[in-house]
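Section 3.1: Structural characterization of target chains.
Under the original work plan, the team committed to producing a structural model for every single-chain target entering the pipeline before any wet-lab resources were allocated. The record below documents one such target. The sequence was received from the expression subgroup and is listed exactly as submitted; it comprises 323 residues.
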Amino acid sequence: MTEAVPASSKSVKPRHSWSERLRENPVVLKELRSRMRGGRAFILITLYLIVLGSLVGTIFMAFAGASNTPGSLNISQGLGKAVFGTVVGLELTMICFIAPALTAGSIAAERERQTYDLLRTTLLSARSLVVGKLGSALSFLILLLIVAFPLQGLAYLLGGVAFEEVVISFLMLVITAIAFSAIGLFVSSFAKSVLVSTVVSYLIANLVVFGIPVFIYMSLGIAAGLIFGSSNLTLNPTQELIIQIVGLVIGWFFVAINPIATAIATELILIEEQSALFVSLPLPYGGINIPVISPWIGYVLLYLIFSLFLIWAAIRFVKRTES
């Protein structure tokens, strides 16, 4: 008779955390080694810090030259706000235009080099391939954010910047890096060449940053003119209230899907309302205030869902080409 094997002696496959899986992913290791090999990455980081440091120094000299009392509290707080806004704004712009470039050629380049089919014959799954390409790009972007963090700390020490602003800005920058990297990765999963993938990725990024706000602004202006510009149209107070609420919700939504608009609106709310989570918005008519969540919360949730969808779609495209 065969003896029963005790449950304790059975081999149990250890469960690794997502961070361990990311570190053990061969795609992440290969991409990071190739990106950090040589002096190109270090030159880019150095130039990036030189630009940020030069802008901060220019702002500091401008404030010092415009003030007769450079040690006053108001001037120090204004300088801190200016430094913080400049650093975060430049980091946000950098992510919006560098993140798609880091991932736009990640999979399309394998097709151009004719190594994609060879890569798919290995034991590496489609999910590991996509997550590895994304993880390597995000690692470099987060490195750029971390090396610039002392400049944000300088703004915090100067005053005028709350701790909540630093946390919210860093969270928004990380979510933006994930979303725009996912855009390039998604396009690269089905594009045949790096050039096509890069052009399409930048087109989508520019539509998100610039095109959609302009289109929505024009559409809302036309809709408001059609609704309120007609002399024959009469609305009762209930209809006016419904239209105002719908317009407020639509306006909040389109602010929350644009990184620049979200950053500006969140900063204004923090200054005026002194609240990082909620804001009370008054309607033009009726004297009613509607409490809504701060735009940065909606931005984080919407872009996180958007990023997860793009990553899932990229994995599906890779699996489809495999089959």
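The chain is about 75% helix and 5% strand.
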